[in-house]
Amino acid sequence: MGNFYIEDWFPLFMFASLGILVFTGLPVAFVISGIGIAFGFLGMAYDVFSFIEFFNIVSRIWGGISENMVMVAVPMFIYMGTMLEKSGVAEDLLECLNMLLRKVPGGLALSVTLMGTIMAATTGIIGASVVMMTLLALPVMMRRNYDPSLATGTIAASGTLGILIPPSIMLVLMSDLLSVSVGNLFLAAIIPGLLLASLYTVYIFVRCQINPSLAPPLPEGEAVHGMDLVRMMLRSFLPPVFLIVLVLGSIFAGFATPTEAAGVGAVGATFLALVKGRLKWPVLKDVCERSALTGAMLFFLFAGATVFSYVFRSLGGDDLVIDLVESAGLGSWGILLLLMMIVFILGFFFDWVEITLIVLPIFAPVIAQLDFGHHLDIGGIQASEAQILTWFAVLVAVNLQTSFLTPPFGFALFYLKGVAPKSISIQQIYKGIIPFVLLQVLGLIMVMYFPELALWMPNTFLE
C-alpha cells in the first residue's frame, strides 16, 4: 500500500467544501473564489502552492475574461432579453399564436411552447422568460380550466429553452471554456433545441388528444378571423421573427460575429420597443439597471470560477480526475455516461453557471482524449478534437436543461412559484415538470446516439 499524502487529495476536498458551503446562502461567486483562495493558502502550508501564483489568477481574469471579445456579447444579449420583456413583444406573440392554434387540442399550451421557442431564439435569460410567460399565460390557462400541472409544466419547460437555443449565454460561456468556435456551437445547438421543443409539442398534443378535459379549447366567441387575424400576425408574429433573422441570420451568413450580432439584437429590441411606443425613460432606465446587475453577477461568477479552477489545477486536480477516471476502467462510453450522470445529479443542487464553470474545464481534457470509434464520423470523415468537444458541449447543454426543473433547486420552479397565483401549489408544479424532465433525458439520449443531430449543421456550413 502506497504512502498517503493529504495534500494529494486537496482538489477532492475543494469539491466537498463547495458542495457544503453553497448551501450557506452566501453569493456563489464569493463561495467559489473564497474556497479557491483558502485552499491556495492551505497549499502554501503544505508547500504545494506558492504565494506568487495568486498573481497568475489576476492576469487570467484580466487577460482571459475581461479582454475576451466574445464575452462582450453577454451583457448585450441580457439587454436584448430584458428589453423584449418590457416591450410587449411576448404578450402580443402569445395572443397571436393562441388564435392560430385555437382548434388544436391543447392549443394554448402549444402556443406557450411555440412562444418559448421563438423567444428562446431572441434571448437566453431564463428568469425573465419563465416569469414573463407565467404572468402572461398562467392566468389565461387557469381561466380556461387547464390542468394546473400541465399548465405549469409547459411554462417551466418552454421557458428554459432559451439557455439551449442560440443565441444562448451558456453557449457563449461554453465556447470560451472549451476553446471552440461559438458560431459552430450555435449551429450545433439549433437542431437539439428544436428537438426538445418538438418533443414537448408532441407530448402536449397527444396527451390533450387522449384527455381533452386537461385543456379545454378557446370559446368561438373569443376567436379572431379574416383580416383581423392577418393584421394580428403582421403586428405580433413578424417582429420577433424579424429580430431572430437579424441576430442569427447575421451570424450564420457570416455578416457579423456573435459579438456584433448581440449588438444588432440589442438595437433591434430597442427599435421594437420604440415602434410599440414602450420606449419611455422609466423603461429604458429599468432595462439598463437590470442588465448591468445581471451582467455584473455573471462576470463576478466568471472571476470566482477562474480562481477556483486555477487553484484546483495547480494542486493537481486535473491529474487526480484523470487518475480516478482511468482507474474506474469504464471505457470511453462508460466515462461519458458517468459524466452525464454527474452533470444531471449536480443539476438538482447547482445552477447551470456553477456546473459549467466547474465541470467543463476539468472534464474537457478527459473527453478530448476518449475514443468513440466511428460513432462521430460524418460522411466517412473522422471527427476532430474540436468536433468531439462541440458534441460534448451540446450534450452538457441539453443535460443542463434539467437543472432548471429538478427540485430542490430548480430555478425555473422558483421563478414560476414566485409569480404564480396562490392557488397553484408547489406539489402541482413538481408533478407537472416530471414528464418534461423525462422528455429532456430522451432528447439527451437521442443526441448521444445520433451525433449528427449536433454535428450536421456545423459540418455542412463549414464545408
From TrEMBL:
It is a multi-pass membrane protein. The chain crosses the membrane at residues 12-45, 57-79, 108-138, 150-173, 185-206, 237-255, 261-279, 291-312, 332-350, 357-376, 388-416, 428-450. InterPro entries: DctM, TRAP_DctM. GO terms for cellular component: plasma membrane. Keywords: Cell inner membrane, Cell membrane, Membrane, Transmembrane, Transmembrane helix, Transport. It is found in: Cell inner membrane. It comes from the Bacteria. One of its GO terms (molecular function) is transmembrane transporter activity. Pfam families: DctM. Residues 16-453 form the TRAP C4-dicarboxylate transport system permease DctM subunit domain. The keyword Iron-sulfur does not apply. Belongs to the TRAP transporter large permease family. The complex comprises the extracytoplasmic solute receptor protein and the two transmembrane proteins. PANTHER family: SIALIC ACID TRAP TRANSPORTER PERMEASE PROTEIN SIAT-RELATED, SLL1103 PROTEIN. Part of the tripartite ATP-independent periplasmic (TRAP) transport system. This is TRAP transporter large permease protein.
